[in-house]
Write a structure and sequence with these properties.
Helix content is 34%, strand content 24%. By secondary structure, it is α+β, with helices and mostly antiparallel strands. The protein has a single domain, classed as YaeB-like fold (2-Layer Sandwich), CATH 3.30.2310. A four-stranded mixed beta sheet has the order 1-4-3-2. The longest helix has 17 residues.
Length: 99
């Protein structure tokens, strides 16, 4: 299993809603790809990596709020609160999320 250098990734808070949704909609994805990593660690690392991929393509002056990014089969929805980035929800990329 390839280890992720988490120090280089942005900090992303994960809401309880996102954890609940991932446990409902991403369980098979986690079981297929985790390679021994726990579900919460897997979700946090994927959320941070997806967010890094998004922000690395943008100008640093752009404020990101309510954005979605599809990353390795899952769609991650982010928002900001008090200057902190939060993962709001997550679902399989082929699903339609009503917000």
């Amino acid at each position: 299993m390839e280890r992720l250098n988490t120090e280089a990734l942005p900090n992303v808070e994960v809401t309880m809603h996102a954890v609940d949704r991932f446990s409902q909609r991403g369980l098979a994805h986690w079981q297929d790809k985790a390679e021994g990593e726990g579900m919460m660690s897997f979700l946090v690392n994927r959320a941070r990596k997806a967010y890094f991929e998004l922000t690395s393509k943008l100008d640093n002056t752009i404020k990101i709020d309510n954005c979605r990014i599809s990353y390795q089969g899952m769609t991650y929805v982010y928002g900001t609160e008090f200057g902190r980035t939060k993962l709001i929800t997550v679902y399989a990329s082929h699903e339609q999320e009503l917000m």
